[in-house]
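Suppose a colleague, Dr. K., hands you the sequence of a protein chain of 569 amino acids and asks what its three-dimensional shape might be. Before reaching for any lab equipment, you can write down a predicted structure in token form. Begin with the sequence itself:
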Amino acid sequence: MTATAPREGQLWSRCAGCATLLYRKRLHRNLDVCPECGTHARLGAPDRLRQLVDPGSFTMLPDRPAEVDPIGFVDVLPYPHRLTAARAGTGLAEAVLCGTATIGRHPCALAVMDFRFLGGSLGSAVGELITRAAERALADRIPLVLVTASGGARMQEGALSLMQMATVSQAVAALREAGLLTVSVLTDPTYGGVAASFATNTDVVIAESGARMGFAGPRVIRQVTGRALPDGFQTADFLLRHGQVDMVVPRRALRSRLTALLAAARAARRPDPAPDVRPSQPAAVDPATASSVSAAGGPAGDAWATVRAARHPGRPTTLDYLESAFDDFVELHGDRLGGDCPAVVGGLARLAGHPVMVIGHQKGHTTAELVARNFGMASPAGHRKALRLMRLAARLGLPVVTLVDTPGADPGVAAEQQGQAAAIAENILALTMLPTPVVAVITGEGGSGGALALAVADRVLMLRHAVYSVISPEGCAAILWPDRGAAPQAARALRLTAPDLCRLGVVDEVVPEPDPAAQDDPEAAGRLLRVALLANLTPLLEVAPATLVRRRRQRFRRFGAAGVRAGAR
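The predicted structure, expressed as tokens, is then:
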């Protein structure tokens, strides 16, 4: 059982997690988290607000909840009597506090639920208040932060409480359409109609450490199935593993994490034209350390040697580039449908001060890392996660940077059963319509449709020793040559190197690498990538969304038969 914050006036409190007797003031200084075992006690809405928002910044919405008893519900007590008792016990008018505030000096609207008030249940008044908070966010053009703690819809209001799931969800949808960030913070417990609506349909879903979330509660599930539940079922860590939340954050870090998200959303909507977004800013790279390459691609080199270089286990990965070429990366997890593919990573970052969404394949350097990341081969969940982040970037007005390094999409039986082909097709289609700048970089292997799912972009860059191909050389050799030993020949025939593809127009620019290759100096490779990204991304920020989409479609249209014949003349 999760601990509950002790009442005012108590000097000592016993932790529900480890049974340690704790001095109340010490526990309060630790944000009601047990210093011995880390158990997070439940917080009422007023305490939650004191921990999250800047002091003195919270202003409650002027709306008072209406007196609601729509169906005259009576169990042991009439519903109005239960409401009166809840108000007396909590000092609140309803199971949610709504208003505006600043977090880290960034304005937002908030709706903070309180489990003490009839189990935080979602009734008509609660739904109305949260909806008004969302409407205030829309009117003020500020993000919305929801903190959930609920057993679900309020039974005492019958089907009308059920309708609040749709009412609040519609308000969240209006914010998404307006490009305003929505964030939900799941606290313990979040179940039923709240979990199945606005708690999980926001742009970013954060689970506080120790939170539990699900549609049906554990007791109901055990009763229905007659089975014991797995260890950790429906806990925050379980949700993270199954792709249902973006992150699990301990209470002490929750305010800083929200500040980072709100800062990114604010900067995205009001870009700072400071000098640090200019491509010349980070040009502290010695050109003498880079491989010689011209705009047309430079020397071709040996194709098979390039294939081996692209596959080198020491070659920088997406996470490595996020350390060296970007700043302030906040990773977002999950496809919201049950998976969090480790072969795809993504989240918010900054590129020379400008907020961007970065999505990339992730391999690893050791055998254990490669196996854990499935060698960078994305499952359908990985493609859906990428799609979710692309759409979030478009809503927030953030440019998208993709880093491609995969032998191809996951070819397993399970991936086929989960609709691998359709997942890739959906990503490609979405990228052709995405109304925000997209720059793709082939950093290592660009294998077939798995690579293209992240590479339909306004500008496609390619590192000097990367490869990009419709099929692997080995696969090509197995089909068209007598034996797999012909892979080096196939590599040359496929024209898969950066200079080859630049000449063909598939790639717009070749990014130089430090000599002899990126894996020999990952930090220098990151600086070179940063320069190239800024040079290509900055001009796109000034282009209207409709023009971006039209030009992107024209770019790929030219690879049709008519375009290829015209280019050959």
